[in-house]
């Protein structure tokens, strides 16, 4: 090598197009790295004539988790992000945050292979992807780069290569609908999120299960899909209230949708809950401060973020998760937006 400076592990990682953590795994013979990635690192070691130092080691670069959100323009994202940051800091790791910056928030766009490559090149310990689509090509790229990946509330079904984390959406849908049934409602609408969203579909299935278990038929005129935003609540509420036999209660698939439901009901001269009961889903800041305070299904959003941070770091350390899909329990929080249906006649 003559007078040429000794190659560093950072240079090896850059040449192989992987994170420093992944290069270290290969060097130390640790599991959790795809064969193609392992070969790329070994080739880089040979090309750079890298020899591990027997003296003082390089100062390790600070580890980071990269969290990518479909959008940061809602309270759900704020709660989850707070959990990821807290979980990372508990383990001495900082969080880098970005969003997909979609033209239409809530459409669950894919992250893209190029972005995954860029995140790996920045030396991220792992990637946490929140409410976005994940394609087969993107899963393959994470495998090839040895980039640990955890998905929170995946928008689409994933295979066993990917560890995902969410809440018991189906059970939450059952809880919300049963609460309204127990109050005496039989005409219950469902204002849903995106039709392609896995959590939204699970909440819809829970709603249907509760109705069918109570011996009630599901009326297609009382269900609809849109986004997880207030505008969807407004559109679907207007449509349902225009029916000859409108609902006396609406279960909204998010707190933001529920806000749109309540505001629209008021604009039409209805009182909540006297004329229309409303249940949301999430239990974010919106739920506590809207008038009346919202009955909602609580998701443990901060805990989901913390668990995701810990899990992605466990994957980076070569640990195998006990389960590839973790669901944290939901619970019903009863406030003032629900009451027995108003009796007429």
From TrEMBL:
SUPFAM superfamilies: lambda repressor-like DNA-binding domains, Periplasmic binding protein-like I
Assigned keywords, A-Z: DNA-binding, Transcription, Transcription regulation
Keyword Transcription regulation appears in the UniProt entry: yes
PROSITE patterns in the record: HTH_LACI_1, HTH_LACI_2
CDD domains in alphabetical order: HTH_LacI, PBP1_CatR-like
Keyword Transcription regulation attached: yes
Highest taxon of source: Bacteria
MF GO annotations: DNA-binding transcription factor activity; transcription cis-regulatory region binding
HTH lacI-type domain location: 7-61
Gene3D superfamilies per record: 3.40.50.2300, lambda repressor-like DNA-binding domains (1.10.260.40)
Name the record gives this protein: Transcriptional regulator
């Amino acid at each position: 090598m003559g007078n040429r400076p000794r190659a560093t592990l950072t240079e090896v990682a850059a040449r192989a197009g992987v994170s420093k953590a992944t290069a270290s795994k290969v060097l130390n013979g640790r599991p959790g790295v795809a064969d193609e990635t392992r070969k790329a690192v070994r080739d880089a070691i040979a090309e750079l004539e890298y020899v591990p130092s027997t003296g003082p080691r390089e100062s390790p670069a600070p580890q980071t988790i990269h969290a990518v959100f479909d959008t940061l323009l809602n309270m759900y994202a704020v709660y989850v992000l707070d959990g990821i940051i807290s979980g990372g800091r508990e383990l001495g790791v900082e969080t880098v945050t970005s969003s997909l910056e979609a033209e239409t928030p809530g459409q669950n766009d894919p992250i893209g292979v190029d972005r995954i490559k860029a995140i790996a090149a920045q030396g991220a310990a792992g990637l946490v992807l929140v409410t976005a689509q994940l394609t087969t090509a993107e899963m393959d790229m994470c495998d090839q780069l040895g980039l640990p990946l955890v998905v929170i509330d995946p928008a689409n079904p994933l295979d066993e290569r990917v560890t995902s984390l969410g809440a018991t959406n189906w059970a939450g849908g059952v809880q919300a609908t049963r609460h309204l049934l127990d109050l005496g409602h039989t005409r219950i609408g469902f204002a849903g999120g995106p039709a392609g969203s896995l959590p939204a579909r699970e909440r819809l299935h829970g709603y249907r299960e509760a109705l069918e278990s109570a011996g009630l038929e599901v009326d297609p005129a009382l269900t609809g899909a849109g986004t997880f935003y207030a505008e969807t609540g407004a559109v679907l509420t207007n449509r349902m209230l225009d029916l000859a036999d409108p609902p006396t209660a609406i279960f909204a698939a998010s707190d933001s949708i529920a806000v749109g439901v309540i505001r629209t009901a008021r604009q039409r001269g209805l009182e909540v809950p006297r004329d229309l009961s409303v249940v949301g889903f999430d239990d974010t800041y919106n739920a506590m401060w809207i008038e009346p305070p919202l009955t909602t299904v609580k998701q443990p959003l901060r805990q989901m973020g913390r668990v995701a941070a810990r899990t992605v770091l466990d994957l980076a350390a070569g640990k195998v998760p006990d389960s590839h899909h973790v669901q944290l329990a939901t619970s019903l929080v009863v406030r003032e937006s629900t009451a027995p249906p108003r009796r007429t006649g």
